[in-house]
Each structure stands twice: as C-alpha cells, then as structure tokens.
Amino acid sequence: MQIEQLSWRSAGGWRTERGALDGDADLVLAFGARALLDAARHAELAARYPRARLLGCTTAGEVCGDAVEDDCIVATAVRFAHSRVALARVELATAGDSAAAGRTLAAQLPAAGLVHVFVLADGLQTNGTELLAGLTGALPAGVAVTGGLAGDGTAFAETGVLADAPPASGVVAALGLYGERLAVGYGSLGGWDSFGPDRVVTRAEGNVLYELDGQPALDLYKRYLGEFADGLPASGLLFPLALQTPGQGGNGLVRTMLAVDETQGSMSFAGGIPTGAHVRLMKANFERLVEGAEGAARSSRERLGEAPAELAVLISCVGRKLVLQQRIDEEIEGVRDVLGPQPVFCGFYSYGEISPFTPTARCELHNQTMTITTLAER
Asked: Which of 24, 27, 263, 297 is the one with CA 20 to 30 A from 347?
C-alpha cells in the first residue's frame, strides 16, 4: 500500500506531512478537532481524493506521525495494491438504537471476502456495548471489529462522525476491509491501578448507573473523588471504573463517565454497566500507561505474522491524555519502539476504544486503553 498524510491548521491550511498519491486513493481517514472538522474540510478532501471513501471523526487530540496534536486535522490517504474497502453508515435517534444500528451496519457490508471491520461512532449518543453486540452478532464468523468513539476534547458537548458526508452527530459508520492479501492486527491494553473496596452494581439501566451497594452511585463516587468532584464529568476521566461481570473471567473492562445527573444521583457511561457487576475505582500509574501502549502494539504486531505493519491506527482515551499531559508523546514513542520505523501512524484521542483484548477474545468497548489497528498487504 501507498500512503500520503496531510495536516490542516487554521494558520496555514493543508500541509503534506509525508508521501504523495496525486489524489489517487482508496481510503482517507480524517481525524480532527470539532471546531475544525467541518463541511468545508470534507469538501476539500473529497475534491482532492475523488474516488476515495472518506471516514473520520471529531477528537480529543490527533495522532500525526509520532506526535500528538491539538486543534488540527490529520488526513491519511491510502492506496491499496491488493485490497478494497466498503463503507456503511447509519444515524442514531437515541442510544437505545445502538444494537439495531450495529445490525444495520453489518447488513450493509458485503459478507464475501470480508476480513475486518473498523467502526467509528458518535461518542455521546452511542451505547458502545449494544452497538458491538448488534454488529458482531450479524457479521460473518471470525471477522473482528476495532475502532473508537468520537471525542470533543474535555467539553463533552457534541461529537461528529464523517462518512462520505460532512461530520454529523448521531452517526455510526463501519469500514469493511477486503482482500486475501490484507493482514490486520489489533491489540488493546490499559495500565490503570484499582483502589478502594469492591462495590456491587445494585441498579443500572443500559449505560446509566444509579446505585452501588444500594447507595446513590454519584454520591458514593463523589466521596472518593473529594476535591475532584467539582470538576465532573471531565474529572471523572482521571478515575474510571474497573468492571467485572459474573462469569467473565480474565481481563475486566474499564468504564469512563460521560455525564452526570445530579437530580437522580446517576452517572452515564460510554458502554453498558450490568446490574450485579462488581466495580472498583481506578487511578493512573504513569509508567504502566506507557507499558500498556507498548503491550497493545506487541499484540497488533504478532497478529500480522511475518508481514511488517504499513499503517497503524492508534486510538487512545482522552483520560490517558489528561494524565500524561506534556509527556503524552511517550506512549506514541512506545508504540513506535515496538512497531519499528516503517508504519505510518494516525489516529485520535477518544471517548471509547473498540477491540478484542486478544485475537481469541470477543470484541469489547473499552475506556482508558490504547487500542491499535495495524494493516499490511502481503
């Protein structure tokens, strides 16, 4: 495959970062700040790459090469030598439509020759757990799903997904990847430490948590956060929940708060919180966050076999960005150390990450992880 990468900033417009495709691309991945990724930028990309499928979303930070950027757009154009793509798109009316949206996306993607699905979804209106249940349940056996939920910095006001149309809220899009010579790797790891006692979810509906151990969940959460409670929901990114469901075994999931309801004492999350699950609060461990990024890279590389990665799509959580702050590039550098100098890096900081933990595990919605999807043609 051949790859061209561009960036756009208010001060200078589009700039070529690497490569040259002369407008001939099969796919363009575009990730950018909500204030910048708009209809005008979509039109410019569509004109520059007239036959390409365009897919992207708003972010909480952009990956451009080995750097993490803010307030820009990064567009990565790919021309495949032996592979092809298809794009499906649906609009959500409510988060309760997420499972149906997943089934619709799967139905829109031709099943013959499907190797992998990469999905992007509105970060505030999607129940990622239900979306994946609908999508994976309708896809051919053995087809994995990776991707992420769009971001909006720490504002949590509005997110958008671009799918052969200007970015819009409520959109979920799935990219089908096809070809016998296409290798896809993936991995997802965190690096957070649990603290405090185990709590049982005694009341929850979908992705809304009402009670822990019979107490209002928000009140209990605030007691642990102390001075950070005044900054909710954004400060909740620093203290996610470790979630373990009955009979799950192995790796638990991590859930990050997206919104609070003071009247009901509830918290909304990007994915489902089942009644009866056990949860514990988590806090950051800087070194383990970087190690988690490196571990995700190793998993994605191993699945490629002998084929060296040519493109790596990195989706990391906004909560990790807030913790790492000025050292945020270190998790990207850790991935580079594992994958080597060849692959082009793109991606974004998200409100949720989508991947199996391992090649043999089922696909899950994660929070606070680094999730990596690597592509190579053999």
From this structure: 24
Helix (H) or strand (E) holding 220: helix 217-225
Q: Are residues 177 and 222 in the same domain?
A: no
Note the pLDDT of residue 368: 80
Q: How many distinct helices (H) and strands (E) make up the chain?
A: 7, 26
State how far the Cα of 232 lies from the Cα of 259, in Å rounded to an integer: 8
**Total domain count for the chain?**
2
Q: What's the mean pLDDT when you consider all of the chain?
A: 92
Poorest-pLDDT segment among 20-24, 28-32, 150-154, 322-326: 322-326
pLDDT at 73 over 60: yes
Whether residues 122 and 241 fall in one domain: no
Do 218 and 174 reside in the same domain of the chain? no
Owning domain of residue 75: 2-189+287-377
CA–CA dist 339, 312 (Å, integer) = 9
Q: Is the pLDDT of residue 4 over 60?
A: yes
Determine the Cα angle at 56 with ends 345 and 122, to 5°: 125
